[in-house]
């Protein structure tokens, strides 16, 4: 049994079958990549996992519990964090505050009205945030407003905001889209480091094959809303069906 | 100090000193001088400064932090006022129980209005709050007459005999705090100057300092940060494990309680209330105060409240006769021309000045008057050091 079990999920948008009989099993502490051409339904699938969309049929189980029908914040509290295709951060808040919010959400739950318990309490939280910011190389920008950062920095910040919650499952929707090569490589290194250092499962949607093949333990190929194959990166590379459906143009 | 950072403690100290010294600071002109009409240091007006300051501080906790623009906050002001006057009519002339009930009733009403209105955001939220407030006004005006006194409102009458007060038959009860009457004043004369120290004003001032202190604590707490997060990106909030709804409702209720406190104090200072206190223009006024001073800043709303109340009470009193005496030194024709030019902006025309000022602020200083102050300060600093100011990275809420 994987930590995430998706069974027979279907989702229609009007006449469009965005997802058709999707089955997916993600093993704990692995990196599972989902690839597929544009419009394959990758983001839709992700949205079904985090409570943004409700599948028409099927089930989604996380760590033995169903996530369907739960609100996004409840699903996050279960241990799933998500990085968006376009970075979603708190633009009017400083980088440090952006880090404090997920930290407080993790510690205090979905709603709490309070002041810091003590000066030390605030210091401890800050210290934790600083450690994470060092990891993503944003420490020197901690007083900057989120909205005034570059796109690459925003992505790294969003990733740090997710990671600081120590999620059991991290979902990443095209984390390197629109990034320069150097930034992409930094992101790969960061994710590799995280994966080695912590017990974390990642589910990553990616266009960039370089990223996929350097990170993934397993790959699912999605085409027109249906999984074509699921296998190891080595086998996927040589798979004729995949070449035809997806890598065709590139190969 | 008091759980505040140094800078905030300084700000609180400044506000405290200014409010305590207000009777002196606001009366800079000798009584017989021509400028005496610009003196704002009389109890009535000073009370209004701080009461509306409280109202605006509370409104800013909702609007400044979460970005939810309520257009119906005067309803809570009114509810607070009605609660207080009933306490004074029935129970005691001591203002504390009345003010306490004002806050309680405003909170209860805010829970209801907020719970429903916060199902929507943006303009729909504003319209819902406006609808609630207008409904309250209309009800107070008509159907609820037995409770609200309808059009004429409520005031303390000779027939009112509060349970805990021993009044002579026919004596009209006066608001007090443990025997100290709100209307008591001592007048200090120094040379040509005259300063009025009024009990009621100092009661209100104390309430405002306390309200301001609470606001600082809220702004700096994780709770306040969450409220700013609501304004910034609700989507991110939900995917970070936070439920934005209870945060906005809490902010709404807190700001409703501030309004209730202000309404209660109004009655404590002047023991009467009418439904017009809940009229939509009253709700609009607090919006103007907050934006004019600087939404989302700590001191801005107080500044805005003071500004508007000053204009309403001082600028509005400048009539054409006064203008003529000012410009009497000019040749007759020129005098008339100058007076004719200025006249539309003063006296009854003060709304025009306010309107123009408001437009100028919104267009040129979206951060309110406080941003204007910051810019001037930065310009000086730049001149002195000869370098671009780098503080732009972050706009701290002052
Ligand atoms: N909210 C929506 N309403 C209607 N159609 C949608 C919606 N979201 C996605 N789709 C459609 O579903 C298909 C899959 O989209 P998506 O999951 O975003 O693809 P991918 O992320 O793989 O590029 C696309 O054809 C898209 O237009
Ligand atoms: Mg997508």
From TrEMBL, chain A:
Coiled-coil ranges (or none): none
Keywords: ATP-binding, Nucleotide-binding, Transport
Gene Ontology CC entries for this record: plasma membrane
Residue intervals of the ABC transporter domain: 4-249
Any one GO molecular-function label of the UniProt entry: ATP hydrolysis activity
PANTHER family: CONSERVED COMPONENT OF ABC TRANSPORTER FOR NATURAL AMINO ACIDS-RELATED, HIGH-AFFINITY BRANCHED-CHAIN AMINO ACID TRANSPORT ATP-BINDING PROTEIN
Protein name: Branched-chain amino acid transport system ATP-binding protein
Species in which this protein is naturally found: Roseivivax halotolerans
Lineage, opening ranks: Bacteria, Pseudomonadati, Pseudomonadota, Alphaproteobacteria, Rhodobacterales
TrEMBL record, chain B:
Key words, A-Z: Cell membrane, Membrane, Transmembrane, Transmembrane helix
Any one Gene Ontology molecular-function term assigned to this protein's record: branched-chain amino acid transmembrane transporter activity
Residues spanning the membrane: 45-63, 94-116, 123-144, 199-219, 246-267, 287-310, 352-373
Localization, UniProt: Cell membrane
GO cellular component: plasma membrane
InterPro entries, per the entry: ABC_transp_permease, LivM-like
Topology class, membrane: Multi-pass membrane protein
Protein name listed in UniProt: Branched-chain amino acid transport system permease protein
Organism (species): Roseivivax halotolerans
Taxonomic lineage: Bacteria, Pseudomonadati, Pseudomonadota, Alphaproteobacteria, Rhodobacterales
């Amino acid at each position: 049994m994987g930590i995430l079990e998706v069974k027979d999920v279907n989702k229609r948008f009007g006449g469009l079958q965005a997802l058709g009989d999707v089955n997916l099993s993600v093993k704990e502490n692995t990196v599972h990549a989902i690839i597929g051409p544009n419009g394959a339904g990758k983001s839709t699938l992700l949205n079904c996992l985090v409570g943004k969309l409700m599948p028409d049929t099927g089930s989604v189980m996380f760590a033995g519990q169903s996530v369907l029908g739960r609100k996004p914040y409840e699903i996050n509290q279960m241990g799933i964090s998500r990085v968006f295709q376009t970075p979603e951060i708190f633009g009017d808040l400083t980088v440090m505050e952006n880090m404090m919010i997920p930290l407080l959400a993790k510690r205090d739950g979905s709603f709490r009205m309070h002041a810091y318990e003590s000066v030390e309490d605030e210091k401890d939280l800050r210290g934790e945030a600083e450690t994470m910011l060092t990891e993503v190389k944003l420490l020197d920008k901690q007083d900057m407003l989120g909205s005034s950062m570059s796109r690459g920095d925003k992505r790294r910040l969003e990733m740090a905001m997710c990671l600081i919650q120590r999620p059991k499952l991290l979902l990443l929707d095209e984390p390197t889209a629109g990034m320069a090569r150097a930034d992409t490589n930094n992101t790969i290194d960061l994710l590799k480091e995280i994966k080695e250092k912590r017990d974390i499962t990642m589910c990553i949607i990616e266009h960039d094959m370089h990223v996929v093949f350097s990170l993934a333990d397993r790959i699912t190929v999605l085409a027109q809303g249906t999984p074509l194959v699921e296998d190891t990166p080595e086998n996927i590379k040589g798979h004729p069906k995949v070449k035809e459906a997806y890598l065709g143009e590139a190969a | 100090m008091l759980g505040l950072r140094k800078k905030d403690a300084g700000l609180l100290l400044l506000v405290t000193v200014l409010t305590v010294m207000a009777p002196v600071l606001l009366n800079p002109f000798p009584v017989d001088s021509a400028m005496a009409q610009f003196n704002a240091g009389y109890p009535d007006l000073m009370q209004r400064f701080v009461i509306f300051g409280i109202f605006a501080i509370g409104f800013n906790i909702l609007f400044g932090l979460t970005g939810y623009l309520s257009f119906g906050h005067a309803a809570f002001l009114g509810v607070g006022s009605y609660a207080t006057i009933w306490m004074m009519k029935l129970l005691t002339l001591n203002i504390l129980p009345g003010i306490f009930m004002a806050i309680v009733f405003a909170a209860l009403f805010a829970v209801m209005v907020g719970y429903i209105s916060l199902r929507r955001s943006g303009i729909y939220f504003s319209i819902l709050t406006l609808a609630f407030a207008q409904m309250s006004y209309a009800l107070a005006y008509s159907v609820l007459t037995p409770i609200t006194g309808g059009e004429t409102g409520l005031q303390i009458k000779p027939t009112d005999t509060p349970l805990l007060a021993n009044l002579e038959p026919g004596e009209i009860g006066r608001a007090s705090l443990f025997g100290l009457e709100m209307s008591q004043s001592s007048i200090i004369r120094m040379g040509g100057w005259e300063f009025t120290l009024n009990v009621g004003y100092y009661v209100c001032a104390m309430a405002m300092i306390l309200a301001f202190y609470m606001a600082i604590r809220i702004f700096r707490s994780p709770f306040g940060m969450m409220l700013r997060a609501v304004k910034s990106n609700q989507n991110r909030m939900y995917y970070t494990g936070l439920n934005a709804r209870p945060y906005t409702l809490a902010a709404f209720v807190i700001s409703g309680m501030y309004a209730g406190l202000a309404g209660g104090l109004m009655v404590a200072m002047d023991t009467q209330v009418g439904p017009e206190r809940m009229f939509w223009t009253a709700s609009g006024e607090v919006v103007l105060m907050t934006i004019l001073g600087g939404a989302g800043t700590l001191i801005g709303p107080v500044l805005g409240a003071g500004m508007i109340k000053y204009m309403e009470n001082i600028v509005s009193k400048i009539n054409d006769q006064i203008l003529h005496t000012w410009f009497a030194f000019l040749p007759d024709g020129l005098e008339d021309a100058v007076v004719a030019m200025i006249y539309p902006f003063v006296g009854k025309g003060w709304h025009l000045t306010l309107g123009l000022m408001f437009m100028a602020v919104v267009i040129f200083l979206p951060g309110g008057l406080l941003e204007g102050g910051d810019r001037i300060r930065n310009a000086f600093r730049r001149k002195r050091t000869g370098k671009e100011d780098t503080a732009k990275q972050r706009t701290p809420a002052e």
